[in-house]
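Re: the request from the purification team.
They wanted to know what the chain is likely to look like in 3D before they choose a buffer screen. I agreed to run a prediction and write the result into the notebook, where they can find it.
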Amino acid sequence: IGTGFSVRYHSFDIHLNTLAWRDPLRRRKLRDADLVAVVHYDGIAHLRYRAPDVDPGKFKMIRVSVDFRPLPKPARLPDPPLVLAAGNFVPAKGFDVLARSAAVLAERKIAFRMRILGDGPERERVRSIALGLGVADRVELPGFYRHGDFARHLAEAAVFVVPARIAPTGVREGLPTVIPEAWLSLTPVIAAPVGGIPEVVIDGETGLLFPAENEKALADSIARLLASDE
């Protein structure tokens, strides 16, 4: 491999299965690199655990930047208010939890509509959950979206949700770029404290946190923001 190089690790690189971490080339990259850049401190902690023989001084936290042009919010947001989420439909995203929270909100007679952008293997399962809970008419699953269209969806949204969880495989969110994109669009964020998320979403300051996989707590947070004049 040589010397004088750096490597960057994202969450999907870090939270691999144990067998993948036995790959000698992967270990050699870490050992020989001059700099190992990670986008959040949680990732650094996991890398140090995975590779205790690597000089810990090599690990540096360097946030990723976003290239995003938000659209202005309309003078009046759509009624009922839009609860938005976006990403790949995989277990770590927790979109099934979000669909269940829709049923809790509906039971409480709270006016809302929900839109989950994206596609993936869990999409039909989430649709089935919404249908089984009687909220399929409130939960929109429009499928694949182009990143260039994301600003339009955020401009309409009253709330943006990141219902992350640690998947059975150990895979989890790192630091989703949708969070700063939501902030740039002046859309408040609700998220689960998974991976690097609690490093930037400070409960009650830069957003609201709820316990992962807890649809009732998520519904509480959504209802709190929807009722807030701020």
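For the purification team: Helices lie at 11-14, 24-32, 41-50, 95-107, 123-132, 147-156, 178-184, 215-226.
Please add any questions underneath this entry.
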